[in-house]
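Protocol step 4 of 6: structure prediction from sequence.
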Amino acid sequence: MKKALVVDDSSFIRKIARQILENIGFEVSEAKDGAHALEQCEASLPDLILLDWNMPVMSGLEFLTKLRKMPQGAEPQVVFCTTENTRDKILTALEAGATEYIMKPFDQEIIRTKLEQIGMV
């Protein structure tokens, strides 16, 4: 079973994303910020990371930059799920190593379609 990590400071968003990913067939863990996510990734890298941009302690972009510098840190597929929708933000995320980008609010169809596009389902 593929493993996914949902990183978002909103417990509601984490819950919704968890339900969607579990319905698709992922084993899901959660992190409330980038620092917590980094700790989890140091212990065991997931196959997929759904990542919020704006979080306390460590932003999604900071987390992504640190993740990509880790041994095997290039392996997880990272999909930003955020309200940040300017062209500059999207390009910054992709240049930092994001695989894809989803705008909030999202639903199961949006996530499934994006995961199909990147070969995760």
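Step 5 (inspection) to follow. The mean pLDDT is 96.
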